[in-house]
Protein backbone atom coordinates (compact mmCIF):
# COMPACT_ATOMS: atom_id res chain seq x y z
CA UNK A 1 0.00 0.00 0.00
CA UNK A 2 1.39 3.38 -1.01
CA UNK A 3 2.03 5.99 1.65
CA UNK A 4 -0.69 8.60 1.95
CA UNK A 5 0.19 12.00 0.51
CA UNK A 6 1.09 14.51 3.22
CA UNK A 7 0.99 18.29 2.94
CA UNK A 8 2.54 20.30 5.75
CA UNK A 9 1.42 23.89 6.25
CA UNK A 10 4.20 25.73 8.14
CA UNK A 11 2.02 28.11 10.22
CA UNK A 12 5.25 29.84 11.24
CA UNK A 13 3.36 32.84 12.67
CA UNK A 14 1.79 30.58 15.30
CA UNK A 15 5.19 29.96 16.92
CA UNK A 16 5.86 33.62 17.65
CA UNK A 17 5.74 34.35 21.43
CA UNK A 18 3.34 37.23 20.71
CA UNK A 19 0.78 37.29 17.92
CA UNK A 20 2.36 39.15 15.01
CA UNK A 21 -0.90 40.98 14.29
CA UNK A 22 -0.87 42.30 17.86
CA UNK A 23 2.70 43.56 17.40
CA UNK A 24 1.79 45.26 14.15
CA UNK A 25 -1.01 47.24 15.78
CA UNK A 26 0.36 47.77 19.28
CA UNK A 27 4.12 48.29 18.89
CA UNK A 28 4.00 52.02 17.99
CA UNK A 29 1.54 52.82 20.79
CA UNK A 30 3.48 50.82 23.39
CA UNK A 31 6.73 52.46 22.33
CA UNK A 32 5.19 55.91 22.65
CA UNK A 33 3.82 55.19 26.13
CA UNK A 34 6.92 53.44 27.50
CA UNK A 35 9.72 55.35 25.75
CA UNK A 36 8.09 58.57 24.68
CA UNK A 37 9.09 57.85 21.07
CA UNK A 38 7.45 56.08 18.16
CA UNK A 39 10.55 55.06 16.12
CA UNK A 40 11.34 51.84 18.08
CA UNK A 41 7.72 50.86 17.80
CA UNK A 42 7.71 51.57 14.08
CA UNK A 43 10.77 49.36 13.62
CA UNK A 44 9.15 46.53 15.56
CA UNK A 45 5.95 47.03 13.60
CA UNK A 46 7.82 46.81 10.29
CA UNK A 47 9.66 43.67 11.38
CA UNK A 48 6.43 42.05 12.55
CA UNK A 49 4.66 42.99 9.30
CA UNK A 50 7.49 41.45 7.29
CA UNK A 51 7.42 38.24 9.32
CA UNK A 52 3.62 38.10 9.05
CA UNK A 53 3.69 38.56 5.28
CA UNK A 54 6.32 35.84 4.93
CA UNK A 55 4.28 33.44 7.07
CA UNK A 56 1.10 34.12 5.10
CA UNK A 57 2.83 33.56 1.76
CA UNK A 58 4.43 30.35 3.00
CA UNK A 59 1.11 28.99 4.19
CA UNK A 60 -0.65 30.03 0.98
CA UNK A 61 1.94 28.23 -1.15
CA UNK A 62 1.53 25.04 0.89
CA UNK A 63 -2.28 25.16 0.78
CA UNK A 64 -2.32 25.23 -3.02
CA UNK A 65 -1.92 21.47 -3.07
CA UNK A 66 -4.69 20.74 -0.56
CA UNK A 67 -7.68 18.71 -1.75
CA UNK A 68 -10.61 20.02 0.27
CA UNK A 69 -13.74 18.02 1.03
CA UNK A 70 -16.64 18.66 -1.35
CA UNK A 71 -19.42 18.94 1.23
CA UNK A 72 -22.36 18.54 -1.14
CA UNK A 73 -20.87 15.48 -2.84
CA UNK A 74 -19.75 13.88 0.43
CA UNK A 75 -22.57 14.74 2.82
CA UNK A 76 -25.39 15.73 0.37
CA UNK A 77 -25.57 19.03 2.29
CA UNK A 78 -23.60 22.25 2.48
CA UNK A 79 -24.04 25.89 3.49
CA UNK A 80 -26.67 26.42 0.76
CA UNK A 81 -28.32 22.99 0.69
CA UNK A 82 -29.96 21.93 3.96
CA UNK A 83 -33.35 20.93 5.30
CA UNK A 84 -34.85 22.80 8.25
CA UNK A 85 -34.80 20.66 11.38
CA UNK A 86 -38.30 20.45 12.96
CA UNK A 87 -38.59 21.83 16.49
CA UNK A 88 -39.82 18.49 17.82
CA UNK A 89 -36.72 16.81 16.44
CA UNK A 90 -34.51 19.44 18.08
CA UNK A 91 -36.06 18.66 21.44
CA UNK A 92 -35.54 14.95 20.84
CA UNK A 93 -31.91 15.64 19.93
CA UNK A 94 -31.36 17.60 23.13
CA UNK A 95 -32.74 14.76 25.23
CA UNK A 96 -31.00 11.95 23.37
CA UNK A 97 -27.54 13.47 23.14
CA UNK A 98 -27.67 14.90 26.67
CA UNK A 99 -28.26 11.37 27.94
CA UNK A 100 -25.45 9.99 25.79
CA UNK A 101 -23.13 12.76 26.95
CA UNK A 102 -23.77 12.05 30.62
CA UNK A 103 -23.35 8.30 30.06
CA UNK A 104 -19.78 8.69 28.76
CA UNK A 105 -18.74 11.85 30.59
CA UNK A 106 -15.37 12.13 32.25
CA UNK A 107 -13.50 15.31 33.18
CA UNK A 108 -10.87 16.53 30.72
CA UNK A 109 -7.62 16.69 32.69
CA UNK A 110 -5.15 17.01 29.83
CA UNK A 111 -3.29 20.29 29.54
CA UNK A 112 -4.37 22.47 26.63
CA UNK A 113 -1.21 21.83 24.60
CA UNK A 114 -1.63 18.04 24.85
CA UNK A 115 -5.36 18.29 24.18
CA UNK A 116 -4.71 20.50 21.14
CA UNK A 117 -2.25 17.95 19.71
CA UNK A 118 -4.74 15.10 20.23
CA UNK A 119 -7.60 17.07 18.68
CA UNK A 120 -5.51 18.16 15.70
CA UNK A 121 -4.37 14.61 14.99
CA UNK A 122 -7.94 13.31 15.19
CA UNK A 123 -9.15 16.01 12.79
CA UNK A 124 -6.24 15.39 10.41
CA UNK A 125 -6.96 11.65 10.34
CA UNK A 126 -10.68 12.16 9.78
CA UNK A 127 -10.19 14.52 6.83
CA UNK A 128 -7.49 12.25 5.37
CA UNK A 129 -9.91 9.34 5.46
CA UNK A 130 -12.13 11.25 3.02
CA UNK A 131 -9.60 13.08 0.81
CA UNK A 132 -6.71 10.59 0.93
CA UNK A 133 -4.42 13.42 1.98
CA UNK A 134 -2.99 14.34 5.38
CA UNK A 135 -2.94 18.11 5.89
CA UNK A 136 -0.64 18.65 8.86
CA UNK A 137 -0.65 21.98 10.69
CA UNK A 138 0.65 23.57 13.89
CA UNK A 139 -0.82 22.57 17.25
CA UNK A 140 -0.06 25.98 18.80
CA UNK A 141 -2.89 27.81 20.56
CA UNK A 142 -2.70 31.19 22.29
CA UNK A 143 -4.68 32.26 25.33
CA UNK A 144 -5.06 35.92 24.41
CA UNK A 145 -4.90 38.22 21.40
CA UNK A 146 -6.40 41.59 20.54
CA UNK A 147 -9.19 39.69 18.81
CA UNK A 148 -10.65 39.14 22.28
CA UNK A 149 -11.44 42.86 22.43
CA UNK A 150 -12.75 42.99 18.87
CA UNK A 151 -15.14 40.02 19.22
CA UNK A 152 -16.07 39.99 22.93
CA UNK A 153 -18.90 37.50 22.35
CA UNK A 154 -16.52 34.79 21.06
CA UNK A 155 -14.63 32.13 23.03
CA UNK A 156 -11.94 31.70 20.39
CA UNK A 157 -10.59 33.11 17.14
CA UNK A 158 -8.46 32.20 14.14
CA UNK A 159 -6.59 34.56 11.85
CA UNK A 160 -7.48 32.85 8.57
CA UNK A 161 -4.39 34.25 6.82
CA UNK A 162 -1.68 33.17 9.26
CA UNK A 163 -3.57 30.38 11.07
CA UNK A 164 -2.93 32.03 14.45
CA UNK A 165 -5.47 30.64 16.96
CA UNK A 166 -6.48 31.85 20.40
CA UNK A 167 -8.90 30.32 22.91
CA UNK A 168 -9.80 33.02 25.40
CA UNK A 169 -10.98 31.03 28.40
CA UNK A 170 -11.47 27.52 29.72
CA UNK A 171 -14.74 26.03 28.50
CA UNK A 172 -14.63 22.59 30.10
CA UNK A 173 -16.42 19.91 28.11
CA UNK A 174 -16.67 22.20 25.06
CA UNK A 175 -12.94 22.82 24.65
CA UNK A 176 -12.01 19.94 22.30
CA UNK A 177 -14.73 20.98 19.84
CA UNK A 178 -13.70 24.63 20.01
CA UNK A 179 -10.10 23.63 19.27
CA UNK A 180 -11.18 21.35 16.42
CA UNK A 181 -13.32 24.16 14.95
CA UNK A 182 -10.39 26.57 14.92
CA UNK A 183 -8.01 23.93 13.53
CA UNK A 184 -10.44 23.47 10.61
CA UNK A 185 -9.84 27.12 9.72
CA UNK A 186 -6.10 26.53 9.98
CA UNK A 187 -6.43 23.70 7.45
CA UNK A 188 -8.23 25.97 4.99
CA UNK A 189 -11.93 25.47 5.77
CA UNK A 190 -12.95 29.10 6.18
CA UNK A 191 -16.75 28.83 6.41
CA UNK A 192 -18.03 28.57 9.97
CA UNK A 193 -20.62 25.90 9.18
CA UNK A 194 -17.95 23.73 7.55
CA UNK A 195 -15.68 24.15 10.57
CA UNK A 196 -18.55 23.32 12.93
CA UNK A 197 -19.53 20.22 10.95
CA UNK A 198 -16.02 18.83 10.40
CA UNK A 199 -15.12 19.34 14.05
CA UNK A 200 -18.28 17.51 15.13
CA UNK A 201 -17.96 14.65 12.65
CA UNK A 202 -14.30 14.07 13.48
CA UNK A 203 -14.74 14.11 17.27
CA UNK A 204 -18.07 12.24 17.38
CA UNK A 205 -16.41 9.30 15.63
CA UNK A 206 -13.40 9.26 17.93
CA UNK A 207 -12.66 6.36 20.27
CA UNK A 208 -11.54 8.95 22.81
CA UNK A 209 -14.59 9.57 25.00
CA UNK A 210 -13.32 13.00 26.05
CA UNK A 211 -13.31 14.11 22.42
CA UNK A 212 -16.61 12.43 21.65
CA UNK A 213 -18.39 14.00 24.63
CA UNK A 214 -17.31 17.46 23.44
CA UNK A 215 -18.98 16.90 20.07
CA UNK A 216 -22.18 15.84 21.83
CA UNK A 217 -22.05 18.91 24.09
CA UNK A 218 -21.70 21.21 21.09
CA UNK A 219 -24.66 19.57 19.37
CA UNK A 220 -26.87 19.90 22.45
CA UNK A 221 -25.79 23.51 23.05
CA UNK A 222 -26.45 24.61 19.48
CA UNK A 223 -29.91 23.04 19.50
CA UNK A 224 -30.65 24.84 22.76
CA UNK A 225 -29.50 28.11 21.20
CA UNK A 226 -32.01 27.68 18.37
CA UNK A 227 -34.80 26.69 20.75
CA UNK A 228 -34.20 29.61 23.13
CA UNK A 229 -35.00 32.21 20.46
CA UNK A 230 -31.97 34.30 21.52
CA UNK A 231 -33.40 34.66 25.05
CA UNK A 232 -30.83 33.83 27.77
CA UNK A 233 -33.59 33.32 30.35
CA UNK A 234 -35.35 30.83 28.09
CA UNK A 235 -32.02 29.08 27.57
CA UNK A 236 -31.71 28.61 31.32
CA UNK A 237 -35.20 27.12 31.51
CA UNK A 238 -34.51 24.70 28.66
CA UNK A 239 -31.19 23.74 30.21
CA UNK A 240 -32.79 22.87 33.55
CA UNK A 241 -35.13 20.45 31.75
CA UNK A 242 -32.25 18.40 30.31
CA UNK A 243 -30.56 15.35 31.90
CA UNK A 244 -27.32 17.36 32.20
CA UNK A 245 -25.86 17.62 35.68
CA UNK A 246 -22.74 18.37 37.71
CA UNK A 247 -19.74 19.93 35.99
CA UNK A 248 -21.30 19.50 32.56
CA UNK A 249 -24.34 21.53 33.54
CA UNK A 250 -22.08 24.25 34.93
CA UNK A 251 -20.12 24.35 31.67
CA UNK A 252 -23.38 24.95 29.78
CA UNK A 253 -24.37 27.69 32.23
CA UNK A 254 -21.02 29.47 31.95
CA UNK A 255 -21.14 29.43 28.18
CA UNK A 256 -24.47 31.33 28.22
CA UNK A 257 -25.30 32.69 31.68
CA UNK A 258 -29.03 33.45 32.25
CA UNK A 259 -28.35 37.06 33.23
CA UNK A 260 -26.17 37.74 30.20
CA UNK A 261 -26.49 41.27 28.82
CA UNK A 262 -24.93 42.39 25.56
CA UNK A 263 -23.34 45.83 25.51
CA UNK A 264 -23.45 48.32 22.67
CA UNK A 265 -19.95 47.39 21.47
CA UNK A 266 -20.65 43.66 21.57
CA UNK A 267 -23.92 44.06 19.66
CA UNK A 268 -22.26 46.27 17.05
CA UNK A 269 -19.44 43.75 16.55
CA UNK A 270 -21.96 40.92 16.23
CA UNK A 271 -23.81 42.78 13.49
CA UNK A 272 -20.54 43.55 11.70
CA UNK A 273 -19.39 39.92 11.96
CA UNK A 274 -22.78 38.69 10.76
CA UNK A 275 -22.55 40.96 7.72
CA UNK A 276 -19.00 39.83 6.97
CA UNK A 277 -20.10 36.19 7.01
CA UNK A 278 -22.95 36.90 4.59
CA UNK A 279 -20.59 38.71 2.24
CA UNK A 280 -18.41 35.56 2.07
CA UNK A 281 -21.25 33.26 0.98
CA UNK A 282 -22.41 32.19 4.42
CA UNK A 283 -25.75 32.61 6.18
CA UNK A 284 -24.42 34.80 8.98
CA UNK A 285 -24.02 33.99 12.67
CA UNK A 286 -26.87 31.49 12.42
CA UNK A 287 -24.42 29.08 10.75
CA UNK A 288 -22.96 28.38 14.18
CA UNK A 289 -26.19 26.92 15.53
CA UNK A 290 -29.21 26.70 13.18
CA UNK A 291 -27.04 26.04 10.12
CA UNK A 292 -24.85 23.51 11.93
CA UNK A 293 -27.78 21.52 13.34
CA UNK A 294 -29.71 21.72 10.06
CA UNK A 295 -26.63 20.35 8.28
CA UNK A 296 -26.41 17.37 10.65
CA UNK A 297 -30.15 16.74 10.30
CA UNK A 298 -29.90 16.80 6.49
CA UNK A 299 -26.80 14.61 6.36
CA UNK A 300 -28.15 12.03 8.79
CA UNK A 301 -31.42 11.87 6.83
CA UNK A 302 -29.40 11.16 3.69
CA UNK A 303 -27.49 8.40 5.50
CA UNK A 304 -30.74 6.82 6.69
CA UNK A 305 -32.09 6.88 3.13
CA UNK A 306 -28.89 5.45 1.66
CA UNK A 307 -27.98 8.65 -0.20
CA UNK A 308 -24.80 9.24 1.81
CA UNK A 309 -22.33 7.03 3.66
CA UNK A 310 -21.38 7.35 7.31
Strand order of the largest sheet: 1-2
Poorly predicted parts: none
Provide the succession of SSEs.
EHHHHHEHEEHHHHHHH
| Form type | globular
Mean pLDDT: 89
How many distinct folded domains? 1
Cα Rg: 20 Å
Proportion of beta-strand residues: under 5%
Straight-line distance between termini:
24 Å
- Based on helices, strands and strand pairing, what is the structural class? mainly alpha
* Largest sheet entry: 2 strands, parallel
What is the number of strand segments?
A: 4
Describe this structure in a few short sentences.
The protein is mainly alpha-helical and 310 residues long.
Characteristic terms for this protein:
5% strand, 4 strands, 310 residues, mainly alpha, 13 helices, two-stranded antiparallel ribbon, globular, two-stranded parallel sheet
Amino acid sequence: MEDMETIRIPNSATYSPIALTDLIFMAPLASRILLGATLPGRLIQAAAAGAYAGAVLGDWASRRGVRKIDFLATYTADVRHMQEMPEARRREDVQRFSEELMAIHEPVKRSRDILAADVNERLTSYIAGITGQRVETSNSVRELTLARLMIPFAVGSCDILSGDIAVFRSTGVFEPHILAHEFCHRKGYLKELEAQALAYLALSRSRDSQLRQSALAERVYRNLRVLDGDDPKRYGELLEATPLSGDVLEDFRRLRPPDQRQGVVSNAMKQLYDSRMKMTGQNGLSDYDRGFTNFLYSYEAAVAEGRASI
